[in-house]
Amino acid sequence: MTYFKAVRRRTFWLGALLAVASLAGCGTPPTYKLRPVTGQSPGTFSLAHSKAVEDERHGTRHLDAAKSIVYSQNFGGGGAALGLLLGPLGVAANISMIDSNTEADAVRLRGKLTLAPRELFLAAATQQGLEVVDDAATGVPGRTLATPYLFVSKTDNDRLLTAAAVRLEYGQGADQWSGVYMYQLPSSYQLGDLARLTPEMQARLGTEAAQGFSALAAFIAKEAPQQEGQAKGGTEKDFSYKSDLLTPRIEIEMNGRFIARSGDLIWFRSFGGVYAVRTSNIKVMSGGV
How far, in whole angstroms, is CA 166 from its chain's centroid? Predict the structure, then answer.
């Protein structure tokens, strides 16, 4: 049993690191995400179509034609650890089973959510005084590319958590910076309920998503170069946490820098970006947050 537990633990840690790397979109050693704000255009953005959001990966599917609602789940099979015990073919078989479950869920959910994340973020950003243009201006020097999306994550017992998210990218090639800004919405759903959304549920989800994008736009608007000094040794304090929103199926202890509490949300900076997670879906392990 000890051997099985050790293999399982190593496998899940590897999966978590890969997930963080995918969110960050960066091949360099991980650092806490601090948005580079240029003096020429600190608040100018272009709506974009990031490959990191729009390319489907193992365990992810899009639930809308615009590829702006991303569903993620890793349940199915015996788990990746069991696959490792069976060798390369076992790994492939387990991945295939998880992917099949993901597709089966997506078939039930696809086309059921009618909200438009790009329009919601555009409205929120404009209200916060940010200058945002559509993707026709993608590639304009000095502009940060913004790809808004709704993130839907399956946790235990077919419970779905939702979050408003924006992936920001700045620069090109090896010098490109990228980070995800994510705000967990207050409501959770059973998979079957989300597959049969009532008009009332649809309206509630739309209202919550609009509030989430508004909170993200407000945070992005306030972020400034001096924040780097604060994050290194000032107001942002190191802590560790577990969250089933970010690492479902098994909660893995990760490191972050605490930004603030707001209602039942904990805002923090991590290797992938900035997250606002409900207190019911995050466990603070150390740091006295």
Answer: 8
Residue 284 burial (10 A CB sphere; 0-12, 13-18, 19+)? middle
Q: In terms of Cα–Cα distance, which of 147, 132, 231 is closest to 181?
A: 147
- Alpha-helical regions (H) of 48-87: 51-54, 79-85
Residues 133, 46: contact at Cβ < 8 Å? Answer: yes
> Contact at 8 Å (CB) between 72 and 152?
yes
- What are the residues facing 69 on neighbouring strands? 150
Distance CA 13, CA 73 (A): 17
> Residue 15 is encoded by which pair of tokens?
């999966």
Torsion from C-alpha of 27, 181, 120, 154, nearest 10 degrees: 90
Cβ distance 270 to 282 under 8 Å?
Answer: no
**AA letter at 143:** R
CA 3-283-193 angle, 5° bins: 95
Best CA proximity match to 250, nearest among 56, 70, 8: 8
d(CA 260, CA 3): 40
Token reading at 153? 């994550």
From the list 72, 62, 66, the residue with the least C-alpha distance to 19 is 72
User: pLDDT for 105-157, tens place per residue?
Assistant: 999 999 999 999 999 999 999 999 888 887 655 556 667 889 999 999 999 99
Contacts (Cβ under 8 Å, ≥6 apart) of 116: 66, 68
Of 286, 57, 46, the residue nearest 167 (C-alpha) = 46
| Spatial CB neighbours of 179, under 8 Å, sequence gap ≥ 6 | 24, 33, 35, 167, 168, 272, 273, 274
Per DSSP, helices labelled H in the chain are 2-24, 51-54, 79-85, 88-109, 117-127, 191-194, 199-222, 227-233
What would the pLDDT profile of 1-35 be if each residue is shown by its tens digit? 443 334 333 343 344 334 433 443 333 334 566 77
